[in-house]
Amino acid sequence: MVSFNEFSTVPSLLRNVVENIHKPEETFLIHKKKTTWEEISFKETLQKADSISAYFLEKGITKGDRLGLMIENSPEYVFFDQGIQQIGAINTSIYPTLSEYEVEYIINDSGIKAILIGNPFLLKKILKIANNCAELKYIIPAFEGYEKIAVPADLQAQIISYEVLLSKSVSAAEQQQINLRRREVLPSDVSSLIYTSGTTGTPKGVMLTHYNFVKNVEVCLQQIPVIDETETFLSFLPLSHVFERTATYHVCCAQGCKMAFAQSLELLAKNMGEVRPTVMSCVPRLLERIHDKAIKSGTAGGGTKAKIFTWALATGNDYRVKKEAGENPGLILGAKKAIAEKLVFSKIKEKTGGRLKFMLSGGAALPKNVGEFFGDLGIKVLEGFGLTETSPVMSVTEYHRQVYGTVGRVIPGIEVGIQNYDTKEILAIQTHENFNENFESEEGELIVRGHCVMKGYYNKPAETAEVIDRDKWFHTGDIARFYKGNLQITDRLKNMIVNAYGKNVYPTPVENIYLKSPKIEQLFLIGDKREFITAIIIPNREALQETFNLTDAFFQEKDDFIENAEIKEWFEKDIKKISNELAKFERIKNFKIKRNPFSMDEGEITPTMKVKRRIVEKKYADAINAMYEEGVEAES
After folding, report:
1. pLDDT at 365 over 90
2. Among 4, 14, 70, 224, whose Cα sits 20 to 30 Å from the Cα of 200?
């Protein structure tokens, strides 16, 4: 069983597993090496961690030193993290997709002394900036053939093979020193520096303590008590992000679950079928794609197959609604549901591996219709909410109680408030303990205080004071309310659009309504201080190609936007139809169709796939202004 106490730290979790839950020889990590899935035991993981600890102790790494990881999800990440954390060093993970400038800034701001590198492309990136990073002493490639990469003659840092660290033998004296250092790690010590994605400026290093992480895992397991030591998690979201780190990695460390690593996003569907996970964390976009593909496949060609599919979904919906209302579905509906399961639902579930107990969705709002779709299939999707600064979970859906369109119940031990962003009056405060499933509140800024709140921003006391007030409330910058006792996120405070007439438009819920169109992959709303709302639309490439018989060359043309009148009219039909669900001031009056998705390489989106509003509006200013000129002409 999981054993949490006031002395628990991140490195103590795995030790507890081998002492109280699993035998050391049992499987912990699973990864694919060439064509074969290989298993790594708890014992081997801890041995490799000890080798890394001994190596860095020899190099003089001390408690509080920052060591970097710029590597994809893999066993190598886990070995390194466990090895450095148990000697009191701080995990400073860097998104592999960040630019050279951003990587250099993070290395220097945090004072990283050594960094683990995952592939040749990342090593080349580091080699270009290494001499600009005064504190960087060791570069550690974790891949074969790194010796073939040209190294600057004047490189000041030392390159060391990861194999050298992993193969180091640990003497009895070194083991004693490692054990001593692990006991000296305190819950109040910083476990990790995670840099915010920088949608509004310079990235800030969020200091999260061992207590932040361990307590977050403890209360989440209380809220979702169905997770046990028999689970197999499939990890594909980046471990450099706090969501995957806590919801998958730390949960597996605490509960003794198996943790398998997906090869890539492109191979995720294949890997799900191979690994057959019981739990996985995901983002709404993945669920939307599964939803879209299932609908398309089920209704393609019409005829009997499409009718059966549509009937099955309607049956699943009726069954779910009755069950969630606490009613008995009855024998007839139960029989229909069993037929729908056999003919339709089981085939969709089999593509996920057929064993999923639930999926945990976070990182953005899940459209209500997508959540209901999975509920109709009998696939449970739990939604959670939090920020890097809240380590991260503030709320998560209870396993037995689903309220679609919300992000669940407040976790135990914290307070979540709704504050009027003009008067600063606190409109409502909810805790896990005072939960009322009928409670509803006004909308306002979401604030939180308690064990999940970060220690602060690294070396930035002024910025820390801006977000954590004198009463210890952390101001999230999100707009939220309580609905049926659950937390419901409306939008980001800084995303709010105020049109020329003073009307407030929250982009996220409006965008989600338009995303009901299968033609639209992504939508970016514009209209601050403008007379009406416009949008940049990212098309569903597959649907667009099939409808207009387009080749890949079409998407490689230089023009950022598609100006084809026939294609625009195709989108316009859905825009006009869906607009009827919105208030007049929220409706899109004009739009541009972007040829390709927003790009991380171009600095348009963050590593967590959030659009950088300021960057996008500046970059495409001419196209945006043209939409308003066209709109004015059309109305005149």
Report:
1. no
2. 70
Radius of gyration, alpha carbons of the chain: 25
Predicted pLDDT of residue 630? 80
| Best CA proximity match to 57, nearest among 81, 86, 79, 77 | 86
| pLDDT tens-digit map of 15-37 | 999 999 999 999 999 999 989 99
- Reply yes or no on whether the pLDDT at 269 is more than 70: yes
**Domain boundaries of the chain, sorted by first residue:** 1-25+39-185, 496-635
Pairing outcome for strands 138-141 and 114-117: parallel
Q: Give, in order, the Cα–Cα distances in Å from 165 to each of 50, 315, 398.
A: 10, 57, 42
Neighbours of 50 (CB within 10 A): 23
* Token pair 């592939």: residue: 119
pLDDT band at 292 (very low <50, low <70, confident <90, very high): confident
Distance from C-alpha of 526 to C-alpha of 430, rounded to nearest angstrom = 33
By the 10 Å C-beta count (0-12 exposed, 13-18 middle, 19+ buried), 265 is classed as: exposed
Average pLDDT score over the chain: 93
- Residue 636: pLDDT band (50, 70, 90) is very low
CB 220 within 8 Å of CB 6: no
HSE at residue 531, side-chain half, CA atoms within 13 A, is: 9
How far, in Å, are 570, 571, 626 from residue 547 at the CA level? 9, 12, 27
CATH number of 496-635: 3.30.300.30
DSSP per-residue letters across 542-571:
HHHHHHHT--GGGGGSS-SEE--HHHHHHH
Per-residue pLDDT at 422: 83
Model confidence at 366, pLDDT cuts 50, 70, 90, reads confident
Give the whole-angstrom CA distance, residue 429 versus residue 481: 10
* DSSP codes, 11-41: HHHHHHHHHHTS-TTSEEEEEEETTEEEEEE
Cα(329)–Cα(448) distance, rounded to whole angstroms? 39
